[in-house]
Amino acid sequence: PLVVARFRAPVFTNGTTLRIAVRDGRNGTLANALWQDIESGDATSLSTANTLTIGVPLDTQLLNDFRIVPSTITPNGDGLNDQAVIGFSVFKISVPRQADVSIYSLNGRLVWQSAEAVEIGREGVVWGGIDDNGDIVAPGLYICRLKVEADANVSSVRTRVIAVAY
């Protein structure tokens, strides 16, 4: 019988090769069944695909999945929502790059910044509601700016609003 499997997952690197194995557990003996590796090649004429390698679409952005969790923080030291994780996914780089995360007040004043080395895949930076002097910021809305450069001519910038409340 022909088996069709579908799954969804982010692919961060062009040319990612899957390692796939299957086993038959129809008779309730799954624990004793042997795994059989799947090799690339033409298994059936029903499909034109004959490879286990995945290509990243050409239109893939350098940065994706930019999110701030939670979107409102209360940095009062009670252990609940004292800090936010600024999360994002990085694509299309082959060596670690610098991610610049900056927090601005609504009047454009730089409040806090961090420069982190990031690699391809899911990344995150933590902000605890403090300024560059280590003081807790005033309640209000702030702009989080994320910038990553891949090459001299390729960069990506994203912004999101983050709230601080007490």
Question: What's the gist of this structure?
Answer:
With 166 residues, the chain is mostly beta strands. It is built from no helices and twelve strands.
What would your notes on this structure say?
It is a single chain. It is built from no helices and 12 strands. The chain has strands at residues 16-17, 21-22, 36-37, 53-54, 63-69, 72-73, 84-90, 97-105, 110-118, 121-127, 140-151, 154-164. The strands form 4 sheets. A 5-stranded mixed β-sheet has the order 6-12-11-8-9, with no helix packed on it. A 3-stranded antiparallel β-sheet has the order 5-7-10, with no helix packed on it. The model has no long low-confidence stretch (mean pLDDT 86).
Instruction: Give the number of DSSP strands.
Output: 12
Element order: H for helix, E for strand: EEEEEEEEEEEE
Tell me the radius of gyration. Answer: 23 Å
**Major sheet details:** 5 strands, mixed
**What order do the strands of the largest sheet run in, or round the barrel if closed?**
6-12-11-8-9
Please describe the topology of this protein:
Blueprint: E1 16-17, E2 21-22, E3 36-37, E4 53-54, E5 63-69, E6 72-73, E7 84-90, E8 97-105, E9 110-118, E10 121-127, E11 140-151, E12 154-164
Parallel strand pairs: 6-12
Antiparallel strand pairs: 1-4, 2-3, 5-7, 7-10, 8-9, 8-11, 11-12
